[in-house]
Specification:
Blueprint lengths: L8 H16 L20 E8 L11 H9 L1 E8 L6 H6 L5 H15 L3 E4 L15 E2 L2 E3 L3 E4 L5 E4 L7 H5 L1 H27 L7 H8 L1 H20 L4 E4 L6 E5 L2 E5 L8 E5 L5 E5 H14 L10
Parallel strand pairs: 1-2, 2-3, 3-5, 7-8, 8-10
Antiparallel strand pairs: 1-11, 4-5, 6-7, 9-10, 11-12
Helix pairs in contact: 2-4
Length: 307
């Protein structure tokens, strides 16, 4: 059957009906922005584009407070949510949703309300949103993938990345089993960081540390990066931005630049595009640790040197 033109009255009605159905299954606070009337903070760092993924809201391991802090201190023309923002797998097992998780959603909705273009590309943990691809709610566009054009004219495929993970594609039961083990590791990580905080040490990821030490995990990440870069080359773009594996990275594979924006569970990282099209990774955990250290040391003092 031929599809209806988007401009036709019937198509517009179908889109509106689908949007209402989506709003009906979501909590009210999720479809309403934070209308506090406050404008952008004067000291926010501005970027052309910000890419974040894998915040896994709805899980104990989510560093929602750190993500909220990052969002409050930055603004951009376009914000990409590159999948696994809300963890549907975890929420099906049991409801866990502290205030900080609601605050992150409200912050994103507020950005959309104040002119930021927000594009949500669902991942495997929030795959239920894929049923609504092509629609918009709260100013957020839902897309299966997107082609982002940088300020210097490069075309980047933006996709979560689970589409290239054979475990997720063909052995989903194994993916669920691994997710349960990973959740236990993240719970341990939370207690480790509470103890570190008591002694004045900065945030540290036990999960990321173990991943780097396990040979199979390192091998999987390397293969994943190569497969994603190859898929991008087949689509005729110059690069690819993804998430999924919780490993922030910028690598070159032939003519393809591979970008992974990391996560907000293990590393607390984002990928940002400057006004000239340059892309870089921000390690927010490292940044906040450096700020805390500077606060302890106090402002630098000039010391007079004898002649």
């Amino acid at each position: 059957m031929a599809s209806l033109p988007l401009s036709s009255p019937v198509a517009r009605k179908q889109s509106a009906d689908a949007s209402r159905r989506l709003a009906a299954v979501l909590p009210q606070w999720l479809t309403e922005g934070d209308d506090d009337g406050n404008g952008p903070a004067a000291r926010r760092k501005r970027y052309r584009t910000i890419f974040v993924s894998d915040s896994h809201l709805g899980t104990v391991g989510s560093s929602a407070e750190m993500l909220l802090d990052f969002l409050k201190k930055h603004e951009c023309e376009t914000l990409y949510l590159v999948g696994d923002i809300v963890d549907g797998w975890a929420l099906r097992k049991g409801w866990y949703w502290p205030q900080a998780h609601s605050d992150v959603v409200r912050a994103i909705l507020k950005m959309a309300k104040h002119g930021t273009r927000v594009i949500y590309v669902p991942g495997n943990h929030d795959e239920h949103f894929r049923d609504y691809v092509g629609l918009e709610f709260g100013g957020i566009e839902l897309l299966d993938h997107d082609i982002h054009v940088t300020a210097d004219g490069r075309r980047l495929l933006v996709i979560h990345g689970d589409q290239f993970d054979n475990v997720v594609l063909y052995h989903k039961w194994l993916a669920f089993l691994g997710d349960s083990a990973y959740t236990l590791l993240l719970k341990s990580n939370r207690w480790v960081n509470r103890v570190r905080c008591l002694f004045g040490y900065p945030y540290w990821s036990l999960a990321a540390h173990m991943k780097k030490r396990v040979k199979n995990a390192v091998s999987f990440i390397s293969r994943f990066e190569e497969v994603v870069a190859h898929a991008a080359a087949e689509r005729g773009v110059e690069g690819v931005v993804c998430g999924h594996i919780h490993s922030a990275e910028i690598r070159q594979f032939g003519d393809i630049t591979y970008y992974n924006d990391g996560d907000w569970v293990e590393s607390c990282t984002a990928l940002v595009e400057a006004a000239d099209g340059t892309l870089s990774i921000i390690d927010w955990a490292q940044h906040t640790a450096a700020e805390a250290m500077q606060a302890v040391r106090g402002p630098a003092r000039l010391v007079a040197v004898p002649a």
